[in-house]
Amino acid sequence: VEAVHLIADGKAPRIPQPKEGATYEGIQKKENAEISWDQPAAALHNWIRGHDKVPGAWTTINDQVVTFYGSSLLDASVPAGQELTIKGASRPGLVTKNGLVVFGNDGKMVLVRNLQFEDGRMIPASKYFSADETTALELTEEEKKMAEDIR
Hints:
single chain; 151 residues; alpha+beta; 7-stranded antiparallel β-sheet; 3 helices; Formyl_trans_C_sf; AL1L2 dehydrogenase; Formyl_transferase-like_C_sf; Formyl_trans_C; catalytic activity
């Protein structure tokens, strides 16, 4: 109550905030969000989750920067999947039907659901090896006529 009265009377002390440490800008820079693989799975998960969405925790896969989104700890047996070499990781990740499984230095697992590439494309991690496949859109005769009418 006393503080409210001081403010209302215009007599509250004003202490300027120091400039040092007054911003979170440095934390949210992309270059500060690289994943360090020499840590337990829980720390990897917290790092990925803590940088989800901005700026996004990233690593290098096949000489390309890949950003990880949507992690969760995986407490199960090692799932079947296709191995994916990740720069700096002690063992390869696994592309499974549920996403990308990565391993901490404690042998425990983290499941990553989405990946974003340098060009901005985002894919489900489970589709990593099929990301380059493209399918042509085939229209029925009725759809072709409708497209022509719209054009």
